[in-house]
Amino acid sequence: xxxxxxxxxxxxxxxxxxxxxxxxxxxxxxxxxxxxxxxxxxxxxxxxxxxxxxxxxxxxxxxxxxxxxxxxxxxxxxxxxxxxxxxxxxxxxxxxxxxxxxxxxxxxxxxxxxxxxxxxxxxxxxxxxxxxxxxxxxxxxxxxxxxxxxxxxxxxxxxxxxxxxxxxxxxxxxxxxxxxxxxxxxxxxxxxxxxxxxxxxxxxxxxxxxxxxxxxxxxxxxxxxxxxxxxxxxxxxxxxxxxxxxxxxxxxxxxxxxxxxxxxxxxxxxxxxxxxxxxxxxxxxxxxxxxxxxxxxxxxxxxxxxxxxxxxxxxxxxxxxxxxxxxxxxxxxxxxxxxxxxxxxxxxxxxxxxxxxxxxxxxxxxxxxxxx
Length: 372
Hints:
Blueprint: E1 3-8, E2 17-23, E3 26-32, H1 45-48, H2 50-54, E4 64-67, E5 70-73, H3 76-94, E6 101-102, H4 109-121, E7 127-128, H5 131-134, H6 136-146, E8 154-155, E9 162-166, H7 170-173, H8 179-188, E10 193-197, H9 203-207, E11 210-212, H10 219-232, H11 238-244, H12 248-251, H13 260-266, H14 271-283, E12 286-290, H15 292-295, H16 300-313, E13 323-324, H17 363-371
């Protein structure tokens, strides 16, 4: 006999509420949980097909050992005994810096928890995670501007009247609760604005009220031009700056005598369109969501720095309807200052951990260095 159980989806950070029909320890049906205060019954295709992922025929459920005859199934006791023996031998011969853990992250929460517990117990800090290839420049900026790398910001779309999507196709990739519904509501509401800065005419750009089709790779240049326009016209939020910011006098000269029109021309945008957007930024309650279109582009760390400048200059950081710092039960990662001598660095590239993680793309160089 089947019964319905409430749970949540683990396949993206939104963790939308799900209801599942369960029988004989198998998922039969999945639907959105209308009682969930965040998702309100909404789920995307990943959530609706979670049973396919969970019960996939190729999913590993027992240990496999590589042998001359291929992978052969073994018992858990044998697997744990052999693995622990090899780990002890490696640790004794080479020390804790010879051990690393790679994985964890979205959809693998327990793997991260137990894996990091094991890693810490063995004395190693080498945790390689995909977030270190996507977002460490941004988290590094948060550490410098907000004090800690794990004090990042998210959008408060519930209380704003303008959403700025930069390199983000939220209609497809979501990343805020009920993203397609929220973005359509912004675009159709006469009192709100949905603005997209993206080279592609993505699904989100097609729905937007304003789309700036920027030349790829010029995002940092455009953001500097936008800040320069705001400061040149004295549209900055001076009250917010005087009460909440330090260092504004140091950075303000960076934007004086800047060739704004020349920069915007290089971005292949119309000056009047960028000027009009900056005017809206100076008087609306707005927040911005940047995504991999920014984090994978050239000068991505500089871009994150400029974007994190733009928000407080307009008074939109840590205010209702702006970019806010979320609360959390468990921090996403640890603050690891690269200037602290206790912060570990990669063996081959000397790259420091940021947010407590290392980028997996340097592992081949580490292995080549150890084998040579």
